[in-house]
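call fold target=CENP-V/GFA domain-containing protein
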Amino acid sequence: MTKGGCLCGKIVYEILDEPVKTVLCHCINCKRMTGSSYSTNISVRSSSLRFVGSPRKFLLKSGQGPVFTVSFCDTCSSTLWKESESEGYKGYTIVQAGTLAQGLDRYPPEGEIFVRERVMWMGQMENVEQFEGTDVRL
């Protein structure tokens, strides 16, 4: 079991099963959402995510692929996870890896998406699948 939560502790969660896949995303929306150069996304079956608290939700119509519902803390603004009803994403929750309490080392990336938008100073990861868009399947 893996645990995590927001910065202020108002929302905490646990993941009951092992994650399905870990992917780095280099799209502009993930950069804005995380305030970083990319996001590290851990996909889990939605049925395995349990949480305490009431996250706020934001509908992200990115124009870059699937429409996501982004859940975040309304107190500290931590982005926690996102979900989509789009093909290939339904039934999964994409947890922002930076919200894990510990154990992030256990989930190394298996793929990188939106690689054309990767910052120039960050090289391609070795032995990690590369995708131009969101072609990675869970």
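return ok
The mean pLDDT is 91. The chain is about 5% helix and 35% strand.
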